[in-house]
Automatic annotation (TrEMBL):
SUPFAM superfamilies: Glycerol-3-phosphate (1)-acyltransferase (SSF69593). This is Phospholipid/glycerol acyltransferase domain-containing protein. Residues 81-219 form the Phospholipid/glycerol acyltransferase domain. Pathway: Lipid metabolism. It holds the Pfam family Acyltransferase. InterPro entries: Plipid/glycerol_acylTrfase. Keywords: Acyltransferase, Transferase.
């Protein structure tokens, strides 16, 4: 009970503005709280509420959401937590994570209840391709809920490309980690069993975060690629949080990349075979 109450207490910040920094010690409702990118958290929480009400029905009523492992989230610190997951749709995956994180804040465990949206966790970010978040009104709205936008150097508009590496992406993820929790999809695509991008390993080496592996399933069967339209209702959506792990500072980029591939289960032959059978 005390742990749940603690989730609602104000978190002092290092805002460069002295007024906002001092107010953060008593700002229970987060009215004057801003993230490191200058966005107001009160607006972010409002967007999470507005986006969360209709999407709750889609993931937990029209489909069957099964969540495991939220006990690992209950004792996590408020900053420097890095969630890494496989990726199946542009938006449904992230939206589901937000619902779960808000419910964990309220102490609901593996249950996702819509009341948690009225006081959501605001210190959340997710890594997304900038081209995905700029295409249409709904993606732009979702972007305001905490997107850290990156320019993919290897893919654009569904085609393979080669362009300069977006060096600002790592810096922005580091800012997000210093402020709160960041969700990342290290494959950088919704294509199943795609290779792990080494940028994830560099972020882990540079920030030494608590890494929480997540494995999801069912979203590709339930929704279209964007995650905004149904393909098949009454589908079981699985989200499994694994025990947090810590990487040694001496671990190489290649070693971290290999571990990431294993812990998000993107190298399992039997899963690849099952996916190919489902695609036929």
């Amino acid at each position: 009970m005390l742990r749940v109450i603690k989730n609602f207490l104000p978190i002092p910040n290092n805002d460069p503005n002295l007024f906002f920094r001092y107010v953060s010690y008593i700002d229970v409702f987060g009215i004057f709280d801003r993230d490191p990118f200058g966005n107001w958290l009160i607006l972010k929480r409002f967007i999470i509420l507005i986006a969360g009400i209709p999407t709750y029905w889609r993931i937990a009523v029209a489909n069957q959401l099964k969540v495991e492992g939220t006990e690992y989230l209950e004792k996590l610190p408020n900053q420097n937590v890095y969630f890494i997951s496989n990726h199946q749709t542009y938006f449904a995956d992230v939206i589901t994570f937000y619902h779960i994180f808000c419910s964990v804040k309220w102490g609901f465990g593996n249950r996702v209840l819509p009341i948690a949206l009225f006081a959501p966790r605001g210190r959340l970010f997710y890594v997304a391709a900038s081209e995905t978040m700029k295409d249409g009104l709904i993606p732009k709205l979702f972007s305001l809920a905490g997107a850290i936008l990156v320019e993919r150097s290897w893919r654009a508009k569904g085609e393979n490309v080669k362009r300069e590496l977006d060096t600002s992406a790592g810096d922005n993820v580091s800012k997000g980690l210093k402020f709160g929790w960041v969700v990342s999809f290290p494959q950088g695509t919704t294509s199943p069993y795609a290779p792990i991008r080494k940028g994830t390993a560099h972020i882990i080496k540079d920030n030494n975060p608590i890494v929480v592996p997540v494995v999801i399933d069912g979203f590709r069967r339930a929704f279209n690629k964007s995650g905004l339209s149904y393909k098949k209702r009454n589908t079981e959506l699985k989200v499994k949080f694994k025990e947090p792990i810590y990487f040694s500072p001496d671990a190489t980029v290649e070693e971290i990349t290999e571990v990431v591939k294993n812990i998000i289960e993107q190298n399992m032959p039997e899963r690849i075979a099952r996916w190919k059978n489902e695609a036929v």
